[in-house]
């Protein structure tokens, strides 16, 4: 079923979704004005544009909070847009490059999702009704307004929803449509993970992508970490048994993850189990690729199904080569020595029993999401709402909105 708030009737919401989101936004018959919007993955291997009927804009964007989108993306929600009937990606070269993309079939879903095989950027997929669903972060300019939230009960601790101001989950500006809450009778629920412990009985937090190819555990900060002159700076300043966490709104993270914002947890590389190779195993992976150019066997990867991509000079990112989930980021800015490297762990992969925010494991830098000013130039409405909502949440939870260093 579909549920709605703010005045839109359930029957109206159901009608809008029954044939496919934005099905009613098809181009008008006869001559009409269009606008072209360019899009690409982070590395540029997958490039396309879409031509949209101006009369249909803005399109309805969506945020899907389900566990599949979290675990296959590494984020707290997939943020996307469904293109109207008749609007298709105009791929550079004429068609989506099959030799540069990887498909992932989610059990129970009729059509696969695609991501760039080189950089891991989520490309999206074509629904059974023929409409394309694509991450908004691929596009160079905005042509949507978030008007649909899917599977909200999958995040009982509020997830990303709790950090958006009420105005962002109700009616927008004058004349804007009300929000549609899509909550099916089956599948919209949170399945709590079982607590994990090591052989010595100490607690562990599982991180695992949707296909299970990238899976590891994180311990609590140890005394050795707290005594280290560098690593202790990545322990929560308010709780010695927690790590630091923050929201990242940079465009690189957005294009790569399929969302506008990525939640990161900071953890020393050497404490993760099993041990993560230096530089995420990039050098070893390149050797395998050179020696076996025509083979795609999983065992060639040095850390499960993790693939690596150099997104900038100091940063190496790790994503699952099977399901495409953003998993890890290593940066030279946080590696004074190999033994002191601190990694970003994508928090959409976490299986914290208490909820997606992993509140028992981290303290959030609620007062200062990263790259917020950069993000305002891309999607100001969403960014302002998230930054202020996150700050208010921090004040309510901690008594203040924490601001601490993450580099």
Automatic annotation (TrEMBL):
Leader sequence segment: none
Coiled coil: none
Source species, domain of life: Eukaryota
Pfam families xref list: GFA (PF04828)
InterPro entries with a match to the protein in the record: CENP-V/GFA, Mss4-like_sf
Record key words, sorted: Lyase, Metal-binding, Zinc
Region (Disordered): 281-304
Domain CENP-V/GFA: 37-145
Similarity comment: Belongs to the Gfa family.
Protein name listed in UniProt: CENP-V/GFA domain-containing protein
């Amino acid at each position: 079923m579909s549920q709605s708030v703010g005045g839109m009737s359930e029957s109206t919401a159901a009608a809008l979704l029954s044939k496919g989101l934005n099905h009613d936004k098809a181009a008008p018959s006869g001559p009409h004005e269009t606008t072209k919007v360019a899009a690409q993955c982070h590395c540029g291997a997958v490039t396309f544009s879409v031509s949209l009927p101006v009369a249909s804009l803005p399109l309805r964007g969506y945020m899907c909070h389900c566990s599949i989108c979290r675990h296959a993306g590494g984020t707290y929600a997939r943020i996307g847009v469904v293109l109207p009937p008749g609007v298709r990606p105009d791929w550079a070269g004429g068609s989506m490059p099959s030799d540069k993309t990887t498909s992932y079939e989610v059990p129970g879903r009729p059509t696969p999702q695609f991501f760039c095989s080189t950089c891991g950027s989520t490309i999206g997929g074509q629904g059974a009704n023929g409409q394309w669903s694509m991450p908004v972060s691929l596009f160079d300019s905005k042509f949507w307004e978030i008007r649909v939230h899917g599977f909200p009960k999958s995040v009982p601790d509020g997830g990303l929803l709790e950090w958006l101001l009420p105005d962002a989950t109700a009616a927008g500006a004058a004349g804007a449509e009300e929000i549609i809450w899509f909550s099916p009778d089956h599948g919209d629920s949170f399945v709590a993970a079982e607590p994990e412990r090591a052989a010595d009985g100490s607690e562990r937090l599982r991180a695992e992508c949707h296909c299970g190819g990238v899976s590891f555990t994180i311990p609590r900060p140890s005394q050795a970490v707290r005594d280290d002159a560098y690593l202790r700076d990545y322990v929560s300043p308010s709780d010695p048994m927690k790590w630091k966490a923050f929201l990242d709104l940079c465009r690189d993270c957005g294009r790569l993850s399929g969302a506008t914002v990525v939640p990161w947890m900071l953890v020393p590389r050497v404490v993760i189990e099993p041990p993560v190779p230096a530089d995420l195993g990039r050098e070893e992976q390149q050797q395998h690729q050179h020696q076996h150019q025509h083979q795609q066997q999983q065992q060639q990867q040095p850390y499960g199904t993790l693939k690596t991509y150099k997104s900038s000079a100091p940063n190496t990112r790790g994503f699952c080569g099977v399901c495409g989930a953003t998993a890890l980021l290593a940066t030279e800015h946080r590696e004074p020595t190999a033994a002191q490297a601190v990694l970003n762990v994508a928090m959409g992969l976490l299986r914290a029993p208490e909820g997606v925010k992993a509140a028992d494991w981290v303290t959030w830098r609620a007062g200062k999401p990263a790259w917020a000013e950069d993000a305002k130039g891309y999607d100001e409405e969403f960014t302002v709402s998230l930054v202020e909502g996150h700050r208010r949440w921090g004040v309510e939870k901690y008594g203040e909105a924490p601001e601490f260093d993450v580099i």
